[in-house]
Amino acid sequence: MSIHRLEQTITIQGALPPPMLGVLHSPHTVPSGLGVVIVNGGAQYRAGAHRLFVQLARQMAEQGHAVLRFDFPGQGDSPGDSVGFEETAPHIGAAIDALHHHCPALEQTALLGLCDGASASLLYLHATNDPRVTHLALLNPWARSELVQARTQIRHYYRQRLFMPDFWRKLMAGGVGLRAVRELLGTMTRSRRSEPASSGNFQGRMAQAWKRFPGALLLLICDKDLTGLEFIQTAMEAAEWKGALQHPGLTHHVVQQADHTFSSAAATQDLNALIRLWVKKTLSEKPPLPGDTPAA
Questions:
Q1: Three-state SS letters, the chain
Q2: pLDDT tens-digit map of 249-263
């Protein structure tokens, strides 16, 4: 059966003024019971880079899911002062409230975020433990620190450069300046430092929320994106993230030949397919709803 989508602009009244603007994508028939809130990252507004979030929302609505895109305060069409991603929990909560107000039959909620929108989603759960959120889709999460940035640059950028004959030809001919060499040496020095684990910084709070999240987790990392690769470096090496990649609900994919915002047509197509399959699989498994008790 063909599913027609409906799109409407809504006002999101939160605990903190002013109200935010959102666009709700509702399936006309065959609702799935899963609602999705897309969390913007950086300075992006609700459409996303190259309208990525519009494409995702429309695809998911065609599959029967209600989807809400919205602008944080001070972005897009929402008035007020901009807030950093570490301070967005009240606004994410208001967006979830609005989605459930307009779609009261929803049984499950997914947060889908890119970059620090993914990080903000985890920080929201750290702050609230919201039982309505049963799914997390995290695209190239932001977990940058000076140490991880240096180690990722060494592993994924400088190491490749050092094995390129063209690099050494330019170096011998003076085509690679002393400044670039100094940057390499400085990065190598920073990469050897130790960084104490901290449960108080935002990376530590993300790790705590990740580990205690009982639902379905989707982690998508683009192989051409240092932000995503830095997250993997953090998850593999930081003490507070130990064992995170063994989360029982985790589905993890590396998207080949894709940049930070999945800007190529092929990368966007891969992203759409991976999310569609993940949602279909996790819904078929029917994870327990809030308040459910295990069978005897």
A1: CCCCEEEEEEEECCCCCCCEEEEEEEECCCCCCEEEEEECCCCCCCCCHHHHHHHHHHHHHHCCCEEEEECCCCCCCCCCCCCCHHHCHHHHHHHHHHHHHHCCCCCEEEEEEECHHHHHHHHHHHHHCCCCEEEEEEECCCCCCHHHHHHHHHHHHHHHHHCCHHHHHHHHCCCCCHHHHHHHHHHHHHHCCCCCCCCCCHHHHHHHHHHHCCCEEEEEEECCCHHHHHHHHHHHHCHHHCCHHHCCCEEEEEECCCCCCCCCHHHHHHHHHHHHHHHHHHHHHCCCCCCCCCCC
A2: 999 999 999 999 999
